[in-house]
Design brief:
This protein is mainly alpha-helical. 66% of the residues lie in helices and 2% in strands. A hairpin with a 5-residue loop joins strand 1 and strand 2. The longest helix has 30 residues. The relative contact order is 0.14.
Length: 326
């Protein structure tokens, strides 16, 4: 498939924003309710949530460049009963709204207690809003991943690993960004977020490499015989069927071919996973923040390349018919 750069930025920016939001909520839960320790001020969570909201907004802006008729974009939400894309379109503004609310209650330091548990722990409004925002963000990860996992005729996508990898990579990039933010703010949450970012990055690398290996051994359910509807034992294609380029030969073919895909696979493995893991491991327990910033930026560049490879490696079944060039 031919990758669309607007979709690359859409998925990576929104994924990082969701991951950052979940990282902040996780850190607040662990330090305030889970561990019973002192956490951070409301301003820390408010500014971090605002950064997540900026990433979500930039992802939405990128999505408009992928629409043929942006003025009709609202119609994408009409098929929510059957379309994962429609569900995604509905959940994105919901995540943005909850993120804004999470930032607002923290900035105003409005902390009314909603529930007091038997062990003496209390659930206040910011934590409750955070739980809701994190839950909707996780649903959004699933919906975005299922947009591609439900495409049965692209064998490289039609797997639960498409959803798992998108979730893990979004969480890894979000936690890495949260760790960099905590490092710059000299926060007590720094090491907690660094350790989580390192674990998620390593786990994301393992599952993504497994999916690549799995796709390399996947067999197509269709063949040239089924593509043209004949059962002749010997079929040899000598022409593509077009005297020039067409929509089919442009949009469903990866630019650069297999060599480019292999080269970028090595690049995103190093830049998106290996290098950030090393930087995160070195900075664990340290005081420097610049290594964390470099790790987050390096990982985002690697994940952009990973998304390009994800789309380019998707072999549409129609290529069985148009595989040979004239």
């Amino acid at each position: 498939m031919r990758p669309a750069f607007s979709v690359l930025f859409l998925t990576t920016l929104i994924g990082s924003g969701q991951g950052l939001l979940i990282a902040l909520v996780t850190a607040q839960f662990f330090f305030v309710i889970g561990a019973g320790k002192g956490g951070e001020s409301g301003a820390f969570y408010a500014v971090g949530s605002a950064l997540a909201l900026v990433l979500l907004g930039l992802g939405l802006v990128a999505s408009f460049f992928h629409l043929a008729n942006p003025q009709r974009g609202w119609r994408a939400a009409a098929r929510w009963r059957t379309s994962w894309l429609s569900r995604e379109v509905i959940l994105i503004p919901a995540v943005c709204g909850l993120t804004l609310l999470y930032a607002g209650v923290h900035w105003l330091d409005w902390r009314p207690v909603l529930v007091v548990f038997a062990n003496g722990k209390a659930l206040d409004l910011p934590m409750a809003v955070g739980f809701a925002a994190a839950a909707v963000s996780l649903l959004l990860f699933v919906c975005t991943g299922m947009i591609y996992a439900c495409v049965k005729f692209i064998r490289q996508w039609a797997s639960i690993w498409t959803v798992v990898n998108y979730l893990l990579m979004g969480l890894a990039s979000g936690f890495a960004l949260a760790a960099a933010y905590a490092g710059l703010m000299d926060s007590v949450l720094r090491d907690f977020l660094v350790a989580d970012a390192l674990a998620l990055t390593l786990l994301g690398m393992a599952t993504r490499l497994y999916q690549i290996r799995r796709n390399g051994h996947a067999r197509l359910r269709s063949s040239l015989k089924t593509a043209i509807g004949t059962h002749h034992p010997q079929i040899r294609q000598i022409t593509q069927g077009f005297m020039g380029q067409s929509f089919n030969t442009i949009e469903f073919t990866a630019p650069g071919g297999a060599e480019t895909i292999r080269g970028l696979t090595v690049f995103f493995t190093l830049a998106g996973f290996a290098a950030p893991s090393l930087l995160l491991a070195v900075s664990l327990g340290g005081t420097g923040a610049m290594l964390l910033v470099v790790a987050a930026l390096c990982q985002y560049g690697g994940l952009l390349a990973e998304r390009w490879v994800f789309f380019a490696a998707g072999n549409h079944v129609q290529n069985l018919y148009y595989q040979a060039k004239a």
